[in-house]
Amino acid sequence: MILVRPAIFSLLFTILLSLSVGSLPLKAQDSSAVWHDCHVKKITEKAECATISVPLDYDNPSDGRTVDVFVAKISSTGTEIKDDPFIILPGGPGQAASDSGSLLNAGFNKVRQGREILLIDHRGVGNSNQLNCARVDDMAVTQEGILQYIQTCLDDLEHDPKYFGVDAAQRDYLEVINALGYDQVNLYGVSYGTRTASWLMREAPTLIRSAILDGVLPPEMQLFEQSPKGAEQALQALFTACGVDAACNQAFPNLATRFADWVTALRDAPMRFTVRNPVTFEMESVNFDYVSFVQAVRGILYSTGRSASLPHALDQLFDGNAGPFSALSAAGAALTDTMALGSTLSILCGDEIYGADEAAIAKAGATSFTDDSYYQFWKSACQVWPYTKGREINKEPLNSDVPTLLLSGAVDPVTPYQNGDAWTETLSNVRHLIVPATGHNTAYVGCMPDILAEFVDTLDSASLKAECLQTTSRHAFVTGVMGPSRSAPESIGDSQ
Predict the structure, then answer these.
(1) Cis peptide before 25 (omega within 30 of 0)
(2) Region label for 437, one of left (φ > 0), alpha (ψ between -120 and 50) or beta (otherwise)
(3) Residue pLDDT, tens place only, 138-182
(4) How far apart are CA 372 and CA 418, in angstroms?
């Protein structure tokens, strides 16, 4: 495992993968919501925030125990405000909506012109009794060390994780929406948030006016069966794009072959390097083993911006310099500020690990450079963590006529675009947009914010003019320490 200090957190959270002055009151809200002025990360304007008490145990609400769920209300920037707000459902699982400010700014400012935005932190994340784990800088990043870390985290938690599973977390959204008195709402779910959106579409279909699902994971699909295919597709697309780019191909002519040889060597034994920690600048020992390496690569592929540096980082690593690759993989540790490991485990263990078809997962992994390492890592973690099993109905296909827009990146390494193609078979009012040369999360790419705003206003996905997305191309490859050496290449091999 990589021993750069933030690497444990970067690896743990490579799963998948937040207002305006003078906020107007909601046109339909329950008097139990007491709003107060507040600020949300990455948003400069003032927001309004409240907490809604919900049962701790939905199966036994009469016992009187409750948990507070945080909600932030972001005022519309327009003058004519619709009655149906826009709700952001983040991914992870374990990410807080209150940490979605950057995403809101990049993707939904035009949606905000006509609607208020609601950011709801379900139980266990953000400002709602976060099940977080403290950093441990001197922990050995090995499988044994990680499990020991998770056990320590479990011992320090204030609440029993069995009350923070997938069904309870999703039910929190419905309870808050109903408490605020809305007749209809619009949903944006990203990554694992598409599971939450599908739960709401199933449980309260008349409540959902529209749904935008980005980086989709249909309820009947198993995450760990889909992710190996996505990772392999994204990696091969990277190799292809580098191969047809003159500067990248000249700098790294045998990248795919060298990568395969390196993975083979790591399967036999880990390799040790000495690198400068990109955070502390101290020299540290770095131990690369197979699992940590392939999962770090998969995490980098989430973003085509970060992956533009991957050929150079790999080339340096293969030549004995682990510094660029360690820095690139450690950059993912920023996710730790928006993810709660306890929530991740409580939801993932009960929704994905429980009942997983290990033979199918192994078969899917056999065609990917990751094998089934993604599943095996989280399976080990779930052997330590107590969790509540998700309902079987959660795994049944969703049949819905809610106006739905599916979004996929053509090189998404965790929720491949084929997931969206499959979902169009059970959704009757749907369109699927695939964005070339894009990884995980497409809401902010190119002209997409305009498309999303138009869809939410009109609910007419068929008439959306999405040709502008086809101009999306990869970031220019970094070919040396001075960065890119030419303009970005065309998205050959990245468009579907």
Answers:
(1) no
(2) left
(3) 544 556 777 788 888 888 888 899 999 999 999 999 999 999 999
(4) 19
